[in-house]
Design goal:
Blueprint lengths: L3 E9 L2 E6 L4 E6 L11 E7 L2 E7 L5 E5 L4 E6 L3 E7 L6 H13 L3 E7 L4 H10 L1 H5 L3 E4 L10 H5 L3 E5 L6 H8 L3 H12 L9 E5 L7 E4 L21 H7 L16 H7 L5 H16 L4
Parallel strand pairs: 3-5, 8-9, 8-11, 9-10, 11-13
Antiparallel strand pairs: 1-2, 1-4, 1-12, 2-3, 4-5, 6-7, 12-13
């Protein structure tokens, strides 16, 4: 029996849903115990009765993932960009934001930062101010008010792209998905029923076509509290932080850690105010964390 091409549009445990070229959705199982597929994978699959088997995962352009001491968690593959959704309330973690940006940079995936709850002006203004260093670095930072269906410039930035929506719980990810795809809840329920994932729906990742032409896609990922970067080398870290990278070539030593060496371009830039103190502090904490982790 011949294989067919398909796109992975949902995953839950060892099961996944593959969308065929004709638009049909089929439950599939990867062949082999160690085989892992993620949403966004282009695959070759083979039909077997009511379900199918993934025979091959085709080469990925990129894979966005996090890694801690215990396990690696893959979010999605073949992305054009990542939308990091944070909110004025609850107060966002700059460390979490930085970790996600570093992981995106490591995979050469364009990040967009969106700050939700613009309508809460008392909370929004200080939160927007905290994002000034990221705007200065050249990141796209957007204000949103999703409860008021105010998406601002975001819709245009999402068009004709595959975007992973990333962020901690409570930032408005579900509201955003439903603004752009009103049938998302129905689709999620149908997929969950098919995969028998029930109340564990939030642990699954889902792909949604935003337009009828299927040029624009959103991938909804589960909320997270921790974002491990153990797949990043400590000495690689500064190259993945644009504000530090801009001054790292000014260091006297090629293997400068930017923490204590003399004639360090990064620390000189910090003293001049070209790098924010909060960003440099995050760098130091991450460097220490990654230095303690041995890479194999």
């Amino acid at each position: 029996m011949s294989t067919q091409q398909g796109l992975v549009v949902a995953t839950h445990g060892r099961h996944c849903v593959v969308e065929t070229i004709s638009g049909e959705r089929v439950i599939c199982h990867p062949r082999g115990k160690k085989s892992q597929v993620v949403v966004g994978d282009q695959v070759l699959w083979q039909a077997s009765k009511d379900e199918g088997t993934i025979e091959q995962v085709q080469e990925r352009r990129n894979l966005f993932y996090r890694q801690d001491e215990i396990r690696t968690k893959s979010f999605a593959a073949n992305l054009d960009q990542i939308l990091i959704l944070i909110a004025a309330e609850p107060e966002f973690s700059e460390m979490q934001l930085t970790r996600a940006l570093i992981a995106a940079q490591a995979q050469h995936i364009l990040p967009i930062i969106a700050l939700n709850k613009r309508d809460l002006s008392a909370s929004f203004e200080p939160a927007w101010l905290r994002l000034a260093p990221y705007r200065d670095m050249g990141y796209t930072v957007l204000p949103l008010a999703l409860k008021q269906h105010d998406l601002g410039e975001l819709t245009g930035l999402l068009a004709h792209k595959t975007t992973l929506v990333l962020g901690p719980s409570g930032t408005g990810k579900s509201t955003l998905i439903n603004c752009l795809h009103p049938q998302a809840n129905v689709l999620t329920a149908e997929i969950s029923q098919a995969l028998n994932s029930g109340k564990h729906t939030t642990t699954a990742t889902h792909w949604y076509w935003v337009d009828k032409e299927q040029h624009t896609a959103l991938i909804d990922s589960p909320g997270f509290q921790e974002f491990g970067l153990h797949h990043i080398e400590a000495m690689q870290l500064a190259q993945l932080m644009p504000d530090l990278k801009a001054h790292a070539s000014d260091c006297k030593f090629y293997n400068c850690s930017h923490l204590h060496e003399p004639q360090c371009g990064v620390r000189a830039a910090l003293e001049l105010g070209a790098i924010s103190a909060s960003r440099y502090k995050l760098y130091g904490l991450l460097f220490e964390e990654l230095s303690q982790h041995r890479h194999y």
